[in-house]
Amino acid sequence: MRLLRKWMMLAAACVIAPVLAAGTSWAETRVVFVTHGQAADQYWSVVKHGMDDAAKTMGVKAEYLAPETFDMPAMQKLLDAAIASKPDGLVVSIPDEGALGPLVESAVKSGIPVIVIDSGGSELSRKLGALLYMGQSEYDAGVAAGQRVKALGLSKAVCVNHEVGNVSLDDRCRGFADGLGAEVPVLQGVMDPTEMKGRIAAHLAANPDTQFVLTVGSAGADPALAAVDEAGLGGKIKTGTFDLSPTILKAVVDGKMEWGIDAQQYLMGYFPVVAFDLMKRYKLAPIADYPTGPGFVGKAEAGSVIELAKQGVR
Fold it and tell me: Measuring CA to CA, which residue among 181, 222, 182, 187 is closest to residue 204?
């Protein structure tokens, strides 16, 4: 009898173990992010932070892939490899429809659900068959920025773009000009802060009537502040920027910058992980876009947000 009982227990274990293993394998959701922004970048590090936090909370496997620089052929290769790996969910930014649109469309047709974040917008996301778009209307955010500068009684401005050709950043400058109601030159910048500062300083020297400098991201904000200070133009030229960082928020608190435009990109990393896990487990699918911005963080709000920015969530 004792031998029979041992045999029955062993048989039960043999049956239960594969079931548990299968259940564990089925339950693990795998999500892949493919973006044009490096995780070390101030803006995109917040996206990755949101992704990592959600993955830890939900017990999901999440991967973040991006080219070393703004490089569409390299991003195409990463996206193609991600699609071939057949994740449970794909999160992608689309700064260039021509280069990335067909790949996103092929992912959808192969049965991989897609959420578009940051770049691409609602119309393109729907066109390609994505579930939804998370982010802000970059053009409308630019318009709002231009209107704010116009309300200050200013009309001579420059838009500093560190990734000319990135549709979303181009839209920020285009919207800014339309909101300001004036012609705004676009200064082509770079990721290197020293060279960026030099280009901004040269533009200000050649255009002494400039009243406002708008940067389309934190990559240009710090160099712009440095260029204005070194030229002795602090208080004479006003500045504003898209995106937030501790340095930007400190400048806003100190009155050196009017505002930072917050896209709340932590949500772009966190929400898709949760959404895809719910889709796999319970067949629950989101049905509407999720606007995360724009939100203008001025002097009144900046102080309370600095610590959150240092934690990598704003």
Answer: 187
